[in-house]
């Protein structure tokens, strides 16, 4: 059974920084993993994807240059470093994973999800 647990969320002023962590158990860290976010009444949005087979990544244009995703294979942690946070970044942030060599950008592709961690920027 795959378990994903997010942490690191909280409240921060605009321009500040936060680092989110996703600890994975029962999952091969070399497989697809990503970060998503969602606000009430809106569709879940793909923020960043860590692809399999290499360290290649995808970033949504709205966070490119401000957010950075990284993966620690030994500690089984996927991290999201967020700098220059804006009020528009306020959302529930989710970690997700999907076994297999092919990584999709759509949230429907991912079978395993964490419970989320709230980020509030004011």
Relevant terms:
122 residues; mainly beta; 4-stranded antiparallel beta sheet; 7-stranded mixed beta sheet; 48% strand; globular
Kindly summarize this structure in a few lines.
The chain is mainly β. It has strands spanning 3-7, 10-12, 18-25, 32-38, 45-50, 57-59, 67-72, 77-82, 91-98, 112-113, 117-121.
Helix content: under 10%
Total strand count, please?
Answer: 11
Biggest sheet details: 7 strands, mixed
Please give the radius of gyration in angstroms. 13 Å
Q: What is the ordering of alpha helices and beta strands?
A: EEEEEEEEEEE
Low-confidence stretches: none
Number of helices: 0
Structure description:
The chain has strands spanning 3-7, 10-12, 18-25, 32-38, 45-50, 57-59, 67-72, 77-82, 91-98, 112-113, 117-121. By secondary structure, the chain is an all-beta fold. Strand 5 and strand 6 form a beta hairpin. 30% of the residues are buried.
Question: What are the SSEs and their pairings?
Answer:
Layout: E1 3-7, E2 10-12, E3 18-25, E4 32-38, E5 45-50, E6 57-59, E7 67-72, E8 77-82, E9 91-98, E10 112-113, E11 117-121
Parallel strand pairs: 2-11
Antiparallel strand pairs: 1-3, 3-8, 4-5, 4-9, 5-6, 7-8, 9-10, 9-11
